[in-house]
Write a structure and sequence with these properties.
Shape: globular
Radius of gyration: 20 Å
Order of helices and strands: HHEHHHEEEHEHEH
CATH superfamily: NADH Oxidase
Distance between the termini: 24 Å
Number of domains: 1
Helix content: 25-40%
Strand content: 5-15%
Largest sheet: 4 strands, antiparallel
Strand order of the largest sheet: 1-2-6-5
Length: 228
């Protein structure tokens, strides 16, 4: 096995902890993870039953391990479980969604949404016991109010959001990726600074006892991958 490169400043590096597994174990772990995540479905019907918030916090901590451009970690997560704050978020989201469904969305967009039975009413934002609002930090604030760059912000936050959803599903919680665009109302409600832009509003909880989801299928491997 080739040796690692020699780093010019070893004080900034630590040994990598990495376990090399047998091929059969690697295949089993890969298949098990696919089986688990293939059962994940977007849920719009939530139970009001309380959930262990420490589990949600741990999932957010897991999301914070995602890779990011120059390790700037340009994300921030707001965990909301206060009923009054959830009510205000629902009101703000439904205001934007009414505008979307009544004119902002194209006919093609509305037609594509028909199989999902969605509309401007977002009662799940109050029913779900917790909401996670994912913000991207477009830039950082340095000393004396100086703007500092973040790199590959969208890519970095997208990776963190994917890991968050996977971590919540792995723990046994259902989620919905809600995007009531535009979402700046969330900055005002949650008192977040101007350098942060909300990108996802994620209800988290247990599915309602009679929850149903669209009968959909995912693209097979040969339609999403090509080998060279």
């Amino acid at each position: 096995m080739p040796k690692a490169k020699q780093h010019s400043d070893m004080e900034n590096f630590i040994p990598l902890e990495f376990e090399i597994r047998r091929p059969d174990e690697m295949r089993r772990r890969a298949e098990d993870l696919y089986t688990l995540l293939n059962k994940r479905r977007t849920v719009r019907e939530f139970s009001p039953e309380p959930i262990p918030l420490e589990v949600v916090r741990e999932a957010i901590r897991t999301a914070g391990t995602a890779p990011s451009g120059a390790h700037k970690q340009p994300w921030f997560f707001c965990l909301v479980h206060d009923p009054e704050v959830k009510r205000r978020i629902r009101e703000g989201a439904e205001h934007e969604e009414r505008l979307n469904y009544s004119g902002r969305m194209s006919e093609e967009w509305l037609e594509d949404l028909l199989p999902f039975g969605t509309n401007a009413d977002k009662e799940f934002l109050e029913i779900a016991p917790a909401l996670i609002v994912v913000f991207k930090q477009v830039y950082r604030m340095g000393e004396n109010g100086k703007r500092l760059k973040n790199y590959y912000v969208n890519e970095s936050v997208g990776l963190a959001a994917g890991m968050l959803i996977a971590a919540l599903h792995n723990a046994g919680l259902a989620t919905l990726t809600h995007t009531p665009s535009p979402m700046k109302f969330l900055n005002a409600i949650l008192e977040r600074p101007a350098n942060e832009t909300p990108v996802l509003l994620i209800p988290v909880g247990f599915p309602a006892s009679e929850a149903a989801v669209p009968n959909l299928s995912r693209k097979p491997l040969d339609q999403i991958m090509r080998e060279y």
